[in-house]
Amino acid sequence: MSSLASNLSTRGQAEPRKRFSLSRTLALVLLTIMALLWIIPLLWAVDTSLKPEAETTTVPVSWLASHFTGDAYHNVFSTADIFRWYFNSALTALISTVLVIVLASLAAFGLSRIRFRARGPLFWIILAGLMVPGQILIVPLFTEMQQMNLVNTYWGIILPQIASPLAVFIFKQFFDNIPQELEEAAIVDGASRFRVYWQIWMPLARTAISAVAIITFIGVWNNFLWPFIVATGVDMMTLPVGLATVQTSYGVRYAQIMASAVAGGLPVLIVFLFFQRQIIQGVAGTGLKG
């Protein structure tokens, strides 16, 4: 009787393990398929950019070329001021990221820790900004930049991109989870509100800062529409805008088009690969769940 009970118990423990193993296998298969769907176009772009131009239009299309060459990259870097565009993109992305972190965290700290009558409605108004398409703001923003003499300047590119309702939401979700006793103890010791924010809240919010920084940096780096409108000179163009103008002069030159695309996307890919753990931890720590 005891052996029968032991067998039933063992079988009952084996079935959940089997189900867990099956679900894990299915998850791995699904993730592998999704990874391949993402990486195959990237590999195709790199492969095409390294082919001789004549072999990019052959039929049937083949993955491997007769020989690989860097002529497409040489032509892209020699015919365009691409290093200047790299600098412009890096400068505007870094400054925008720093300003978004500072302004969004200050706003979130006030909404999370300071009690005032319109706090709830103000937070919902900020969240409503997530539902406003950025395209409808192009005309008023350009008019404002024009009146402030900021067209074709770095600040003209940066300022409209530092208003981030998503960043405010991420920081507020994180600040709401910090125990109130930490702030009360600091205030009892004589700390001001700003000192509490700067010396207690911000060091604790490293995961949220990492998430906001990476999301903002990638968003500003990849932004095409606003820099395309406000940067009227070639020397002020960001990388996406500059590469788009160069691509229009290539005609049907797939190797050079792919080389310019790889050159534009490679820095963002490197940032993501190095900081993907911080992105995941930041999003998980701020309570953003699908």
TrEMBL record:
Main location: membrane
InterPro entries linked: MetI-like, MetI-like_sf
Keyword ATP-binding listed: no
Domain of life: Bacteria
Listed transmembrane segments: 26-46, 85-110, 122-142, 154-175, 257-275
Stretches assigned to the ABC transmembrane type-1 domain: 86-275
GO biological process: transmembrane transport
Keywords: Cell membrane, Membrane, Transmembrane, Transmembrane helix, Transport
Subcellular location(s) per record: Cell membrane
Keyword Cell membrane carried by entry: yes
GO cellular component terms listed in the entry, alphabetical order: plasma membrane
Coiled-coil features, chain-numbered ranges: none
Topology term for the membrane: Multi-pass membrane protein
Family recorded in the similarity comment: Belongs to the binding-protein-dependent transport system permease family.
Name of this chain's protein: Binding-protein-dependent transport systems inner membrane component
Species name: Ktedonobacter racemifer DSM 44963
